[in-house]
Request: fold
Amino acid sequence: MTLETDDLRAAVSAGLISEIQAASLTRLADERRGYRSATAEIDEPFELFKGFNEIFIVVGLLILYAGWSAITGFAIFESFSAGKIMSASTLFITGSLQIVLISLLAKYFTLKRRMIAPSILLSILFSLGAIQIGFALLHATGSPESASMTINGGVTFLFLIAYWYFFRVPFSLLLVGLAIFAFAIGFTNSGSDINDIKDLFLLTASKSSSKITIGIGLCAFSVAMYFDMSDPHRVTRRAANAFWLHILAAPAIVNSIALTLYISATFTSFLFLGLFLIAIALVAVIIDRRSFLISGTGYLIALILTVLGGGYGLVVFIIGGGLVLLGANWEKLRCKLMNDLPEFRGKNKLPPWKSTQKESL
Reply:
């Protein structure tokens, strides 16, 4: 009997073996058979739910939270005005109770049942409870409304990093990154100055928010690569951690640079934009993460519309067909690219590819 990668993932999810043991077993098997030649074509693992029962539980949790919000009388999306209705102490108590209740639910659905969709939703609801505590501190300290992003971002970050430490929900790292982003934007006093979403990405703008965006993106990418390179076979939760961090990093990096070049609207900027998108595509293939490629596709279409005007139909059709072919032949293209690339530091820690060279057993 041969154990496949999916078998190891199932064993980890069922709690039969740890993530470290699964990675060690995979590494040992590859060392015995040859690292690259023994590794079959693998897809980028991604799961939102395991079965419809998880969707059923998610619906129940949403209704439960709606009832909780009605009982406590706090609507998180009413922002600052909610604090004028409820006292700081009431906000703090109800927020703390929500965090405790969510933690108990996560102990069952995340640690015991190991459900994916409920764990994602519970992470979001936990962050809403942290934001409520942030509002409580905002009003208790008499801080102005403009400080809400800083306080809520900082408080939410602290709670979420603790949540990730205890429950290890990969999706919560995305929320951690967003909380850091909100804190940084608020701390630099640029949060209240954002009148257009372009202010978050346009590097040529006088505001510092775009620099924060690309900085957060680069940090998220670095941490994601750390997780990716510690689990190149993507059999443990580290790969899922990396996936959600790439989801955060890709738009932050690609949007900041691509939008800045596109807005410049010169021949030189369009040329560099094209070269940048090609570079992003190569990075996506090399690290075997499609999120960067998806982030750059929109700008490629926009560039074509700008350059060609009304005669874009055929070109867009060709690009769409190219993306479909790329998805169908991703592993073959990646194999060819990785075999042609010279050796570089960390290459052997990237997701495996089939090598044309024979390796010793």
The CA atoms of residues 285 and 334 lie 6 Å apart. The two ends are 21 Å apart (CA to CA). Confidence is low (pLDDT under 50) at residues 34-41, 79-83, 356-361. The first helix runs from residue 5 to 13.
